[in-house]
Model the fold of this input.
Amino acid sequence: MAERIFALDIGTRSVTGLLLEKSNDTYTVLDYCTIEHHTRSMLDGQIHHVMEVAAVMKEVKENLDKKHGPLPRVSAAAAGRSLITQRASAAFELNEDVISNSDTIRHLELSAVHKAQNQLTENQKGKRGFSQQYYCVGYSVLTYKLDEEPIGSLIDQRGYLASVEIIATFLPRVVVESLFAALERSNLELENLTLEPIAAINVLIPVSMRRLNVVLVDIGAGTSDIAITDSGAITAYGMVPIAGDEITEAISDEFLLDFPIAEKTKRMIANEGEATVTDILGFETTVTKAMLVERIQPSINKLADAISGEIINLNGKLPKAVMLVGAAVSLLT
Done:
């Protein structure tokens, strides 16, 4: 029997609910619903007003409930606000025994995640205000090894020592707990939690492409999330707290527009090439894409510099390719 999955992407600008059906290894999208936040209740990927965000989440859920029946459990993707990553390894002796099930490998991976948590705690000691304030929200396997040699899978392998290296991602407690509070107010039980860049890279960059040093940048409203692949694995995650909202604020400042009007103007110009707007003083102006880009170029450069700087910091070199996704991309390219 096919399994139904309800997922929420809780973004700075909007909440999207996705209903899927899983059959074997195939996913079919049954329905989706996107509703924008009525106020700026989220900034830079952080929930600032739990009740307002919860109201939008509940509205999305109820729209899908009406057509598909009750959806009490949800898988959620969190924005990478103040993301910290930590690498760690774990190993255990096989003594020529065979690993015959995935549960053993899962236990090995989680042992590495636990080590990453301890290392993060140790690294943060002495920093002001730190007291177990980070939650692990996901991890990726960098490599498996059998007797110190890289191997694709440990299942049914025989040797003396099995090990794994992972990269774990952590978010501040306030980010995660505000998300939990919003889900609780929406009458939703959290089934799975992941990070937006982890979800994005698993959809857009398949395993067969990960031997290439490729960077995926998801430019949202509040954060620009980064994921990097190289040598067959996901090697780094990162974020910068600068994204589409900074572009909208620059449009608002430059053309004297209220923020919601500036956001509509940005979208219209991205889709149609120009927009006619009336500023707060009542003056009407037709803004073309070329005019817009010229007037807000410093803000575009600031966003591009922040993203490129974080890529070099994470990757240590220029990547082979950069893939950009997100509504603000058309103004940056």
User: Anything to note?
Assistant: The two ends are 45 Å apart (CA to CA). The chain has a mean pLDDT of 90.
